[in-house]
Design goal:
The protein is built from eleven helices and 21 strands. It has 370 residues and is α/β, with parallel strands linked by helices. The structure holds beta-D-glucopyranose.
Length: 370
């Protein structure tokens, strides 16, 4: 069976011959891959600064953004049947009985660091024709989302971020408005998304849907395709070439929330220094190690204290974030169908996977079709 593998010893990315899996446990499901998205993490693994194969393998099957179709189910699988569309989560818990988050199903907060991540850390991923997974790590997707459900995993980043933001900001009367069902609403609050890649644009959709006055701040001068997509959501696109960071708060108003999805520390820290009173700043980017940069640390520290600011990082996602991402993707599709669809800029065959992983990044979300 074909799979796309990173081979650290040879520093090579290749289409490898991977054994076709079969069910070994009653609660397992055999899944046929449909779409696998490529993200910055995959590209980084291909530069061999990140990622580890499983202990018994000299290659790591890549891919953690997957949409598949159930092909066969184990005898105790109750909620899935052949033909169902599923999105698997990425991280699996550590085995330490004292790891409270993993024991509670919140391995995204694993406290030992001994978690594994499919396609990233010590477990094969989904860039292969078939894979197996336990039912508990699979999320049923409605057939109406077939074409876009490969975006669920990158959307879980915003879902988890907001699941952090709301309870953290409960520390003060932050919102004036609530949804009819009692959920807080960002109306009247200003949110800035840093970066116009897939994580940023999906984050902008989430923030806009939650009622925030949302802005996307990115480098490229507009007009450009990403800026047009962003503006089609009713979200102003601000180019850093026209509006320097120092002028951002003047343009936006007091910045209540920053959703960092740019992964570039210099710009991320500059924007942190203009966060507003009682503001919250969410880091999602994972920059590769580089030479240290200069930041105005006194200014940042002074602001964090004198302005009651919170800085929070968020990685990976729980089952709840996958569930809400699937729901929200449905909401986004009814509100902005063209914009959601145009996030997927290229669909390629397995034969073209090396090109997508190794050549200069282009487009927004590129997908390998199986
Ligand atoms: C994935 C996360 C993962 C993180 C760090 C991201 O690209 O979406 O699931 O936890 O990389 O490995």
């Amino acid at each position: 069976m074909q799979a796309v593998g990173a081979i650290p010893q040879k520093k090579e990315v290749a289409i490898v011959d991977h054994p076709r899996p079969s069910l070994h446990r009653d609660d397992e499901v055999l899944i046929k891959s449909l779409d696998v998205g490529i993200c910055g993490t995959d590209r980084e693994i291909c530069t061999f600064v990140y990622g580890d194969p499983p202990a018994n393998s000299d290659y790591l099957v890549l891919g953690h953004e997957s949409l598949g179709v159930v092909s066969e189910v184990g005898s105790s699988v109750a909620g899935l049947k052949p033909g169902d569309l599923v999105v698997p989560s990425v991280r699996r818990p550590c085995s330490d009985p004292l790891c409270a988050p993993c024991q509670a199903g919140l391995q995204d907060f694993c406290a030992t660091g001994h978690f594994v991540e499919r396609g990233i850390k010590m477990a094969h991923g989904y860039m292969t024709e078939f894979y197996t997974e336990q039912e508990q790590y699979l999320h049923l997707v409605p057939a109406s989302l077939r074409d876009v459900a490969v975006l669920v995993e990158p959307l879980t980043i915003a879902e988890k971020a907001m699941a952090q933001v709301w309870p953290i900001q409960n520390r003060l009367p932050w919102v004036k408005h609530h949804h009819p069902d009692g959920r807080p609403n960002g109306k009247g609050l200003n949110a800035v998304v840093l970066g116009a890649g897939p994580v940023g644009i999906l984050g902008a959709m989430k923030l806009k849907a939650e009622g925030f006055n949302t802005f996307v701040y990115s480098r490229s001068r507009s007009p450009n395709p990403k800026a047009e997509l962003v503006e089609s959501l009713g979200v102003p696109y601000i180019s850093a070439l026209d509006t320097p960071v120092e002028a951002l708060a003047e343009r936006v108003g007091s910045i209540d929330l920053v959703y960092e999805a740019v992964g570039v520390s210099s710009i991320a820290y500059k924007v942190l220094s203009v966060l507003g009173l009682n503001g919250i700043y969410v880091f999602t980017g994972i920059p590769a190690p580089k030479a240290p940069i200069e930041v105005d640390a006194d200014l940042i520290m002074r602001n964090v204290v004198l302005m009651n600011q919170v800085v929070v990082g968020t990685v990976n996602a729980s089952g709840a974030a996958f569930k809400s991402a699937i729901e929200d993707l449905g909401v986004f599709m009814s509100r902005w169908p063209e914009a959601v669809q145009s996030l997927i800029t290229r669909r390629c065959s397995v034969a073209q996977s090396r090109e997508l992983l190794l050549d200069k990044a282009t487009g927004i979300k590129n997908v390998i079709q199986f």
